[in-house]
Write a structure and sequence with these properties.
two-stranded antiparallel ribbon; 8 helices; 74% helix; mainly alpha; 246 residues
Amino acid sequence: MNSIESILALSLPVIITGVFALYFKLNQALFKLVLAFSAAYLFSTTIMHLLPEAYGSNNFKLVGLFIVVGFSVQLLIENLSAGLEHGHSHHHSDVCTKHFPYGIIIGLLIHSFLEGLPVYHSDAADISQPGHSNQQLIFGLVIHNIPISFLFVALLKDHGVKWMSIIFFLVLFSMMAPLGFLFSYLVHTFQFMQVMSYQYIADAIVIGIFLFISTAILFETGDDHKYSPTKIISMVLGIVLAFILS
């Protein structure tokens, strides 16, 4: 998958889902199944693929530090986004139409940008070779962002945002992961910082974010910490797919 294909894969599903959400209401049962599948896939990909690559740098202590940094950064983002990026639904009232959700939008945009950083990846064995797109991560971000896009548009509608503004923020959201990808591409291409150090730092930060997000989703999609057979099947499918693609 080349750079253009990667950017389109990261952005188009967000836009398409968001436009769909302008005209249709969210199916809560299906939404939770997709969230459970995406969380299991992200968690498994993190453990089976991203974590071994990050620790392949042999900077074990620093990798661990930046994993904690990523986890903590996501914890701080929660104060802005109120958990929208892991599918946390909000109970709306008439007050929602009287204020604009700046914090939620800013938190979601920062989160999406950081998620895009490890998508462009280099071979640690030879940094002189061109990098490549992490396809299993792209797929994980697609299935992660589809339900979030639906929830994001629904939130803006509940806040009485005009449809032209909704489209603007939807497109802006769809551009953030590609911008993270492009930032990493520039780092690898022009090497304005030590590429391998940047690589494991970016990987470790996103590992921390993914661990936070995936576990939060898995806990929140369970009713009283009980999981229906369909949710369990969704999670198992996510794990199996991550194993096959890793």
